[in-house]
Amino acid sequence: MTLTSFNPWNDLFSTQGHAEQLLGDAFGRTLMRERLVHALPLDIRQTEDAYYIEASVPGFKPEDVEITFDESVLTIRAISPQEDETKLGSYVQRERPLNSVQRHVHLPAQIRVEEITASFEYGILTIMVPREKKAQPTRIPVTMAVEPKKVIDAPVPVGSATG
């Protein structure tokens, strides 16, 4: 028979882990390739010329971030390289979403995809999505399609039979 010492923290962390698995999707977390993926918080502003999307990606480097656009959906994904826990020690508790974050943003079709730009500064990713210029109302002149043909009443020649 093996004796083990009672550690209340083990039960607490075990219960928390089970609760996170059960409720993970409800709070914006999903499993992707056996890694925990957190929903990426972001802000979206619009001007007449563009949409500006700002996302907080602290702990990630620009090379860890991937942005794609396909069928009106802009996808932002950041995946950090795996840490070697043996060098740094193993975690007792980990709450900061450092593994990966992802977000899909549905945009209207009236954007200029080839001109989308992204910049990264102090953990903030800023994506500028240019909008197509809105068509301005234009007055179309209305003209007569075909001039009506004029019918000329010719006098009936004298001596011709009518009727």
Description:
The chain has 163 residues and is mainly beta. Helices cover 12% and strands 33% of the residues. It has two helices and nine strands. The chain has a five-stranded mixed β-sheet, with no helix packed on it. Strand 1 and strand 2 (35-39) form a beta hairpin. The longest helix has 16 residues, at 8-23. Mean pLDDT is 76; it is low at 25-35.
In short:
This protein is mainly beta and 163 residues long. The protein has helices at 8-23, 85-88, and strands at residues 29-32, 35-39, 42-46, 50-56, 65-70, 73-79, 100-106, 117-121, 124-130. A hairpin with a 2-residue loop joins strand 5 (65-70) and strand 6.
Layout: helices, strands, pairs:
Elements: H1 8-23, E1 29-32, E2 35-39, E3 42-46, E4 50-56, E5 65-70, E6 73-79, H2 85-88, E7 100-106, E8 117-121, E9 124-130
Parallel strand pairs: 2-7
Antiparallel strand pairs: 1-2, 3-4, 4-9, 5-6, 6-7, 8-9
